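Lecture 7 notes: from sequence to structure.

We start with a single chain of 122 residues. Read the sequence below before looking at the structure.
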Amino acid sequence: MKKSIVAATVVAVLLAGCATPPKDIAPTYVSTGLYENLSCKQLRAEAEAVSARAAAANGLQEKNRGSDVAMTTVSLVLFWPAAFFMKGDGAAAAEVGRLKGEMVAIEQVNRIKNCGITFAPS
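Now the structure, written as tokens:
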């Protein structure tokens, strides 16, 4: 009984150190003031640029998550000190949150200016 409780606790601690899936990262607040002076054409171009950067950041975060999951498996099965090499959330996660926040701000300005830009659901 005690062994299963200890094992469950170890697994929970190790999984808590894993990188967060990009879909679960909340947007960071970004002021709409950055985009209010843009024309609709410029706003569309900015939305496309932010979307491309967000796709790259999501890919990096997923890669980090995959590495952490693999390292967790290795540490549980073979060698527990491997758990110290997990990346967890860092710069990639912060970048995902910031870019999500930029998209929220762009969407708000789009609605205010009636630019008609269509955004894919996040």
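Helices lie at 2-16, 40-77, 91-113. Keep this in mind for problem set 3.
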